[in-house]
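job 3f2a | input accepted
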Amino acid sequence: MIEETNMNEYRSLLDRLKRNRENVPLELLTTKYQKSYNQLKEKLRSMTKEILQDIVLSNLQIERNHANEKYMEINTAIRESGILVKVSHAVFLQQNADQVLEYANQLREVVHRIVKECEEAI
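job 3f2a | predicted structure (122 res):
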């Protein structure tokens, strides 16, 4: 699961993004400070992906002979849920780590429900 130090760093980066957006005009962020601004956004993307994977995939087991089928079903369900769009909004517009965690848990429910349905069908 997510280590507390990683969540503290994540929250700190979200706070930095929020402060930057509140105190620096977007034009300067995308020109004069473009390199550091893009690095910050990329670090947040990367950490958000890690957090989602940690939460969603925790204790998930898929039988090898059903894996490809389940992966396709899971990816479709994730895309159709619209949760990833909400995660992006929570990160880049709201800078809200708690909201990201809530959406990660919603994704976990979607994924684990699909796997459970597969197990019950066997």
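job 3f2a | The longest helix spans residues 97-121.
job 3f2a | closed
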